[in-house]
Batch of 2 targets.
Target 1
Amino acid sequence: MIKVGIIGSTGYAGQELVRILLQHPDAEIVWYGSRSYIDKKYSEVFGNMFQLVDDKCMGENMDELAKKADVIFTATPQGLCGSLVSEEILKNTKIIDLSADFRIKDVAKYEKWYGIKHQSPEFIKEAVYGLCEVNREDVKNARLIANPGCFPTCSTLSIYPMAKEGLIDMNSIIIDAKSGTSGAGRGAKVANLYCEVNESIKPYGVASHRHTPEIEDQLSYASGEEVLINFTPHLVPMNRGILATSYAALKKKMSYEEVKAVYDKYYKDEYFVRVLEKDVYPETRWVEGSNFVDVNFKIDERTGRIIMMGAIDNVVKGAAGQAVQNMNIMFGLEENTGLKMVPMFP
Amino acid sequence: MIKVGIIGSTGYAGQELVRILLQHPDAEIVWYGSRSYIDKKYSEVFGNMFQLVDDKCMGENMDELAKKADVIFTATPQGLCGSLVSEEILKNTKIIDLSADFRIKDVAKYEKWYGIKHQSPEFIKEAVYGLCEVNREDVKNARLIANPGCFPTCSTLSIYPMAKEGLIDMNSIIIDAKSGTSGAGRGAKVANLYCEVNESIKPYGVASHRHTPEIEDQLSYASGEEVLINFTPHLVPMNRGILATSYAALKKKMSYEEVKAVYDKYYKDEYFVRVLEKDVYPETRWVEGSNFVDVNFKIDERTGRIIMMGAIDNVVKGAAGQAVQNMNIMFGLEENTGLKMVPMFP
Amino acid sequence: MIKVGIIGSTGYAGQELVRILLQHPDAEIVWYGSRSYIDKKYSEVFGNMFQLVDDKCMGENMDELAKKADVIFTATPQGLCGSLVSEEILKNTKIIDLSADFRIKDVAKYEKWYGIKHQSPEFIKEAVYGLCEVNREDVKNARLIANPGCFPTCSTLSIYPMAKEGLIDMNSIIIDAKSGTSGAGRGAKVANLYCEVNESIKPYGVASHRHTPEIEDQLSYASGEEVLINFTPHLVPMNRGILATSYAALKKKMSYEEVKAVYDKYYKDEYFVRVLEKDVYPETRWVEGSNFVDVNFKIDERTGRIIMMGAIDNVVKGAAGQAVQNMNIMFGLEENTGLKMVPMFP
Amino acid sequence: MIKVGIIGSTGYAGQELVRILLQHPDAEIVWYGSRSYIDKKYSEVFGNMFQLVDDKCMGENMDELAKKADVIFTATPQGLCGSLVSEEILKNTKIIDLSADFRIKDVAKYEKWYGIKHQSPEFIKEAVYGLCEVNREDVKNARLIANPGCFPTCSTLSIYPMAKEGLIDMNSIIIDAKSGTSGAGRGAKVANLYCEVNESIKPYGVASHRHTPEIEDQLSYASGEEVLINFTPHLVPMNRGILATSYAALKKKMSYEEVKAVYDKYYKDEYFVRVLEKDVYPETRWVEGSNFVDVNFKIDERTGRIIMMGAIDNVVKGAAGQAVQNMNIMFGLEENTGLKMVPMFP
């Protein structure tokens, strides 16, 4: 039984970790961390957990946690994990960080986009970017995982095969993404009130969203080129789900079958990546509540571009699910253990 | 491994049966029945099932089905199950009928409220009303289960302890219920289009809804009196969930603790019924995707009435989940096998 | 041109006042009051007002306001209007208070249900309860209007004809109401976040909601009896709209036609009250954005009860629209001036 | 008083025409056409119109209509208007066609994208493309207006100033659009049911949507170049609204102020086009129920691209509102007569 501590268990991603881990056959939660709700029963914060979780919320005593837990998930705002990690801690336990603290290898880039000083740059190099389908081997032996962002997961996996094979013009990439509102977190802000989000769609972080350098890094690693992209997220009136619609110029004319073969090369053995049938496009409803990434593409012969689309559940494959997938890999379990949830519809 | 056939697998309740049974450790689906989609791949009808179900939809060849399946679920419109059942079939297999065909013991009453002639009244007496928490013993040996309606499940379980103990005036009961739109089915009707349902709430079937006699029957059995109620369902712009708010006059003044003891008497050992803490009321979001029934009550000393509230997921405890719970009981499994899904939020 | 000042113009009701008054032929807004956004441009708070309103938000300097404005609308939390009103002010201007401060004639009752001390009980007697269809004559000469609450407006108008004519048992009344989320206000609270409200329905304020005594008072005035009711509001995932479903025992058997005649007696000349056709029930979508109240009823012969239903747009007839209707009456305008908005669908 | 006939008055666009025209000071509806609901009261089809419209639905007797009406709006499926128009008709009345029949000047292109044979190609040349802000002068004297599509209106107006001034690489344009569900029409289809649309976002018509050639034509006219674009619409779970996010490579480096001056050159005197403040992006909620087009842009210096964004209400500026705007121009009225609706929020 893997003993799990969660720091930040009362955000949406934290709560999803709880939901998943309660149903995981080989894991047990030993620490429900939450600064905001210390000493409050977890099931009072999330009524779905009534009679399923009896624990109270606790602060983040890292020394105690490191002794108790085989692995710690940090589902916390940027900067917190960076301030908590230490060699001492990592000798005793593993950390899977759901924040951005260890995703960007270039500390100056991190500090510029996130506007904060990194508290433990010495661990950035060691940290493994936990995009499981791409970095599986490195994840196996990692002590510290930088769990990917929701948009980067969806965008990168949609584009990866074409980037890796060098088939698209890497500086022609435009990613137009749409996210459900759980991605905005559980903080009490007017902008996220029901009446403000409902019946509307809006772009945000235009040409400035923090996931931009993360996506660019991953696409650069895949293609071996320095990549600059346009990335525009939009807020959609729904709870869960991300859809990324990505556009790129094909370097040469390709048929559907040729591109399909490229996607299959990378994904046909991946349990969580489903390359859809021809002319069937990803829809977030078909992955809701699951760890699946549905991807597909369309070639536009008129413009010479390819449209690459991907859909995930942002709190599962985009956060808690992928974190557990990383845990499974790190602890030598079957990668989909506890993650075979059938998407829930409607 | 229990071999399961589903007739009507392409409605919302049928699809939920598939979702649940795919994750059930002791069941295997051998027949995806659907008149509307014969020969179409099931995963083309429901994209969430892509790479999880390879089968095609089939018609309802009952002889073949009865041989192949240990149990048949009929998630079909009223009248169909009644037309399919026979002694021959029931000798070979069990039937769990999610329609209303065998819920009303008085055939005249059924025919009046449903406006159709019953095709096999000879099986009505044998059929067991599968409200598991109430009729568990009878379910164990049943060949034919009348799986309860969504509103009756939620309403009856909310009121049952008070009715059974004779503590409320049975003819003062008013049930005001609110349902998500999946309860309206997957038929292509203007009234159920997104733009018609969204941003609105409406009552329907006022003083005439077909679940009225079903609820009245159950409350009559519980109380030993002939009961007439008011029942008003409302359509709510959400996918899943039923909330029933029920009002009744208390026969005598009672304290919170006294009423709580009554609820606990019936439900404290029930896995699926959660009696909430004082002054915490049921909300459908806390049971979504699960088989839980959350109930609670409030005494209004000013008016001498008790308000009894219950929340379920209409396609789980209100349909497919309870059907599987019945299957578990009939086949001697732990009652919550494959049904321990943690409610999904948000 | 009526010069209008609005205190509390940046809540949902305040903003709706602005929307309506901008399109009113005889009114002009001279003061956009808002403590929270002083000196911020109004159109930065509400983007819909871009290029329509150039004013900045201001505090509530009552002396200045009373000189500038012919009428002041206070769309503010309970207690504020009570603390601002004075003989001095009322000599110079009229006040239409959208809060509860002057709705309850019994100051002790007000203080008990609202939990605050009333700041100006000397004006309670003078204040006119602005339920226009009922108190039109008194409104004409009022200096201070207590604009009715959203639930009381919808509930009272649904029940009024039956209560006034003495046809129902007044102590059998149960009102089960459902409200869109704009009724919860624009404050930044976790409970009102998109992901908390969406895909759920919940009761709140069970047997304790502050609109209870207001409804009881109005029904008492109508019937001439002391009335106690059960009132249960529910939060619905939609922006606007209230549906009230009310139940009462008929004192004697009545036909549809007889009851219809009673409703017509009171409402057939009312522009804003629409008594629907037989068996057509109110739906909030059909009144959205308008000042209409749609009402209808159904007699249940089995139980001897009548179900009375009403639908309004909570921010129009339930708040800003009715406030403007009161203004029209007070200033001798046609009652529906600036209020003939056709309901917007979908 | 302009006498108006509407063919196709029971679709969402047709109903919006009714809503707008009922509030128009100089227009009167004399014909509520609807093949599907002949002889049914219009207010039974749309409950919001109860007591506002007494008329019954009628078929499309063009001869009679041409005599009765000064202008006919056809809010009908592709092909119908083309089959009804004739010199005879146009001698007696004007036609504003909300379908695509007369939008594409090249009949072969129309027939290829729409897959039907054009019934009256002889009128294509005469027809004026009613994008008011661009073709105002031609609209004045037109007999036959091709009212623009919803996506083309939003996309073209977002991009127009940059295209007209030759500041962007016309073959680099990618338009990623998001639409509310009313755009899918009121037909009874499973794909548009509440539970299918809610809680999901999906792309559709990828690289094949029929609005593509219409947008390309307009951008070609503006720039004087043959333009090919990528256009991807997405279905969003909301009733109304279109957001178009468009990407293009700037031909040369430009500052915010330079681009702003370009937008102001075209739009500063346009009542319905609102160029937002710096770093404020269009959101559909701020234009709901109104005829406004909110536009803005962001320059991404890193990639050398400009992101141009626009938001409209698809049934107003994207259909009925623009149609009435065209009517106003054709009949010499102030262009915003009856169209000054303040956007409704929330």
Target 2
Amino acid sequence: MQPINGIGVAKVVDSRHPDFKGGDLVWGRTGWEEYSLITRPDPLFKISNSDVPLSYYTGILGMPGLTAYAGFYEVCSPKEGECVFVSAASGAVGQLVGQFAKLMGCYVVGSAGSREKVDLLKNKMWFDDAFNYKEEPDLNAALKRYFPEGIDIYFENVGGKMLDAVLLNMRVHGRIAVCGMISQYNLDKPEGVSNLMSIVYKRVRIEGFIVFEFYHKYPKYLDMALAYMREGKIIYVEDIAESLENGPAALVGLFTGGNMGKQVVLVSHEGKKDSANQ
Amino acid sequence: MQPINGIGVAKVVDSRHPDFKGGDLVWGRTGWEEYSLITRPDPLFKISNSDVPLSYYTGILGMPGLTAYAGFYEVCSPKEGECVFVSAASGAVGQLVGQFAKLMGCYVVGSAGSREKVDLLKNKMWFDDAFNYKEEPDLNAALKRYFPEGIDIYFENVGGKMLDAVLLNMRVHGRIAVCGMISQYNLDKPEGVSNLMSIVYKRVRIEGFIVFEFYHKYPKYLDMALAYMREGKIIYVEDIAESLENGPAALVGLFTGGNMGKQVVLVSHEGKKDSANQ
């Protein structure tokens, strides 16, 4: 049976590929399994800095980190002082976008689905503010409260009603980087978004992106992220499910917001079977 | 009573502004009236080339022309050979976008609301193909027929169901320049657009724009448009309503597709009262 694919961290047992040798630590496309046969290292990055938790290479130092970096810096073209809104803000990508935006001198508000997540954003991750979208019957009114002068940048992770409310609150020349629309993935028919006229009125740019088109920027990003981490300027929160057996429940939990921070499935510890999958 | 504003062509009767003098022909923001008192020339462009129909300065040589130019060349970043779809394609702006795209070596299809308009696009304006959206019960199927490999550039004038169908047919890195959404202007609540996930899957960029942000490009555009016209490489079709009394009906006709080409209201002929308003 074909294993489910995922982006994981692993130790090379044996390799015929000239770039990899037994004992190398790597991150990239692996399977939800204890041992993977990888025929195409596409992508597979060698891990040189192992003085940080290896699981971080499924998060801040891996694909979600590069996603946040590419989406925020490359797609959103942010400027100091701009007003930034991040949905799914305590997730693997959102927590980093918000912290990058704060480091750039932006005003940053995040939305999340529980009081604990909101506390995390406000008290640990330096967000200027955060709110629980489940407690807001009127998302438009909530956004008007947090962004009385409007939103310059929206980092879109959820879609649907949130996007519709955001469109009403965009500022002139606002930018929306579309990373994902998790609220829409499991619907038979996606929700209709009605407020697209704002795109003309406010000259808004909406742009979708996918991280694999930015893999060439990974070395530059890694240097930046490691420096920020070592200086204590960025923190990263993970939610680790122990053992492969708990993987399916952890995956399902992403869609109900059960996770707190980046969801990781720990297949085995380094030195044992050496693999941690997202 | 305040007159309705519009972009018109006029002759200056008298002026205290240093840039304008009696007898000058101008185009810019005027009123739906025989004589206008213009206190802010914002914008008001002097007409130097009067060897073309003066009404063209309400169209190809004026605001709609610059709109087509800015939206197509600046917002869509077109490349030779790309597949371009234009809605409201026989209108003031659409007919130019399609012809600019053809001149660039693109494959161009337009949609319009009558057989006569479709004929005009195919037989007079060099569009590769065109269809009557009112005869297409399934817009997605129609677009798949005309764009079997998908759409690189969509010049959006209508919104609603057409945008929803276009989103399903965009190619990777497609661009949508949002000029207007005429199908939505008079609805109590705009239609919902459901297929926005394509923005992520296909890394689509959607961008709204407004012509007044491109007025500094007008001299460059005018040179280009005059040259194309004189070489016979571009034609421009107008629908002229004679006399101000017919203006309101002509305006209403825009929303039912009554016009064929750029709708102009002729207030008076040059040499008489000297004013033609859009």
